[in-house]
Specification:
Strand order of the largest sheet: 1-2-4-3-5-6-7-10-9-8
Oligomer: single chain
Radius of gyration: 21 Å
Structural class: alpha/beta
Shape: globular
Order of helices and strands: EEHHHEHEHEHHEHHHHEHEEEH
Strand content: 15-25%
Number of strands: 10
């Protein structure tokens, strides 16, 4: 039987290790063709040069010349549980959008990728994302970053903005959350939910949190500690559940809008932090962080009782800790999506993809609408 052609596309670029020897983690960078060709035509091939492999001093003229040929804007795509390289149906379209706007696309492998999430944690993921950014900055010319998180990649992105290295948080100019859904709410509908939680808590209470859960408890090997993080009320991964109170959502997401609270800027603010007297289109250059939150109207992992529109509004409001702002001059001028929340230098936009499923493999036109929204943000940075 002939296998199908790679369903999410094929990619050309450079595969490199960003940590070693243990764990040996890799990432893949595909850059705009102009940057690849400029490296090649300067007699520096896309194969890592010998002077880089030999770890010569970073002040070496040849090494710095190589770095200057590399793209400085890096968009990092972070998949969900069991994902790795090429994690989403829109991976190729996102690559095209990045290249059209002068960005490289980075696809990473974390220790939690594929089935590694079962003994992992958001803390470990953030440490490794820090290491990737450090490598990209020091060895691959990275100066500005964007994070595009799918599913649990959304938790990774939000967690990074609170617990990541301050230098790389400040270098992060765009965060995209696609399908920020609760792992817990769907699991709570299963008949075995309470018994599984009870068993996992018992293991953790007896200092056996690293022991594996029974096979029937989960679809993949998973420790009791990670099981509780994903599926217990107030677990460490429980960021987006609809039954969380407003205060609980603010506790989990409110740091997003506070990252630049202590920065000096040229804004005039009212008492609520809203910017006065200037259209969004005239102050794009002042924005330090843009956040796009995209929710699918037909997400199969969201229980039917959840009001998706309301949840999306609450998630965005919790990040900024204020009400909705409408702006007719928003990026894509789509009447169903031109709702933004803003506090000083941080702007959050909500995007409801009514016909889309969890990973946007279904829902005519929704994948394109999502990628176009990302493209409009990348273009402004």
């Amino acid at each position: 039987m002939i296998p199908p052609i790679s369903p999410y596309g094929t990619f050309t670029g450079e595969l490199f290790q960003y940590t070693s020897p243990f764990p040996s983690l890799v990432a893949f960078e595909s850059s705009p063709s102009s940057h690849l060709s400029s490296i090649t035509t300067s007699n520096i091939t896309t194969t890592t040069p010998t002077f880089v492999q030999n770890n010569n001093n970073n002040n070496d003229d040849q090494y710095n010349g190589y770095k200057k040929k590399l793209n400085t804007k890096k968009c990092i795509l972070i998949g969900g549980l069991s994902d790795g390289l090429i994690p989403t149906p829109y991976s190729k379209q996102l690559e095209c959008a990045c290249h059209e706007n002068g960005w490289s696309l980075i696809q990473l492998v974390l220790s939690s990728s594929y089935l590694g999430f079962g003994n992992g944690s958001l803390e470990r993921d953030t440490q490794e994302i820090n290491k990737l950014m450090t490598y990209l900055h020091h060895h691959r010319g990275g100066e500005e970053f964007a994070l595009v998180g799918h599913s649990t990649g959304c938790q990774n992105s939000v967690h990074f903005l609170k617990h990541g290295d301050n230098e790389y948080i400040r270098r992060t100019k765009l965060v995209v959350l696609q399908a920020p859904v609760s792992d817990r709410e769907g699991a709570m509908l299963e008949s075995s939910y309470n018994s599984n939680i009870k068993h996992a808590r018992s293991l953790v209470d007896n200092q056996k949190g690293d022991e594996m859960m029974p096979r029937k408890a989960f679809w993949s090997p998973i420790t009791a500690q990670r099981f509780l993080s994903l599926q217990d009320c107030n677990g460490k991964d429980d960021f987006f559940s609809s039954d969380l109170s407003d205060d609980q959502l603010v506790d989990r997401l409110g740091h997003v809008g506070k990252i630049y609270d202590n920065d000096d800027d040229n804004y005039n603010h009212d008492d609520n932090g809203d910017t006065l007297g200037e259209d969004l289109t005239n102050k794009k250059q002042h924005l330090a962080l843009r956040v796009l939150v995209a929710f699918s109207g037909k997400d199969e992992y969201v229980p039917d009782h959840v009001d998706k529109d309301l949840l999306l509004k609450r998630l965005c409001g919790a990040m900024i800790q204020k009400g909705l702002r409408n702006n007719d001059h928003d990026h894509d001028n789509n009447n169903s999506t031109n709702n933004i929340y803003q506090n000083g230098k941080v702007l959050v936009k909500r995007l409801m993809l009514d016909k889309g499923n969890h990973n946007l493999s279904k829902g005519q036109g929704e994948l394109e609408k999502f990628v176009n929204s990302i493209s409009s943000f990348l273009r402004d940075i």
